[in-house]
Amino acid sequence: xxxxxxxxxxxxxxxxxxxxxxxxxxxxxxxxxxxxxxxxxxxxxxxxxxxxxxxxxxxxxxxxxxxxxxxxxxxxxxxxxxxxxxxxxxxxxxxxxxxxxxxxxxxxxxxxxxxxxxxxxxxxxxxxxxxxxxxxxxxxxxxxxxxxxxxxxxxxxxxxxxxxxxxxxxxxxxxxxxxxxxxxxxxxxxxxxxxxxxxxxxxxxxxxxxxxxxxxxxxxxxxxxxxxxxxxxxxxxxxxxxxxxxxxxxxxxxxxxxxxxxxxxxxxxxxxxxxxxxxxx
Length: 281
Ligand code: ADP
Prior knowledge:
By secondary structure, the chain is of the alpha/beta class. It has helices spanning 65-72, 90-95, 114-118, 129-142, 158-170, 188-205, 216-222, 256-269, 273-280, and strands at 23-34, 37-49, 54-58, 80-85, 99-102, 176-180, 208-212, 225-229, 236-241.
């Protein structure tokens, strides 16, 4: 075995030079280790996301989507490769509060009212109390929860709780919003309504979105670009640009170009019968 340091992997807080904006991930790999057990989650993932754009990550369950998102958010250690968020390392971007992450569950504290829950992230920052309150109320308004400020989580529906989680992230005024299946637990109508609210909010705030989703329709509806991942260890196998601009309506889902994007993504994700038959032969 060579002990040449130059061959060692570069750890993730190395910022690629000359890339000041957006998100850039270069050759990122990740192996989870527990005792002697190892799980290779990601294998050489690379992609770029321009600032102000919306990108979805889609792929089979367990392919490493959440891991990739968590690496960009700097909440998981041990990845190799390079990543930059707004020209900073993920760590620096997190410390400078450029990033907010919305997870699969709302993560609300049952003993806090809505305002207290939305304020949670901000309380860990140096933002003065008066500005914190202003931001919390603005974020609550943005997600359509005005009038529910004094409600406890058990008094809110699933959709309202997810809106609250989004409000908590927005109150941080992040340049980069990372979302991990934020609408997965919701019924279809609520999900669709929140999809459009998210588009409106992103437009108002000029926020860059990186979204993990299982839904092909959601990926096409929300994104400028969709990244398709292979089964674990995840790699980016396809990149599709979705050129519908930023003003999208529910009718877009019936547009033949929308249906064609969905079909293309579906065939990238699912082997066709012929492929299956061929590999079984
Ligand atoms: P996805 O989001 O695509 O479903 P994940 O990123 O959650 O995939 O997981 C990718 C792989 O890494 C899975 O095999 C999962 O079991 C494994 N994994 C995820 N988190 C951990 C962890 N903290 N420790 C060990 N293995 C993990």
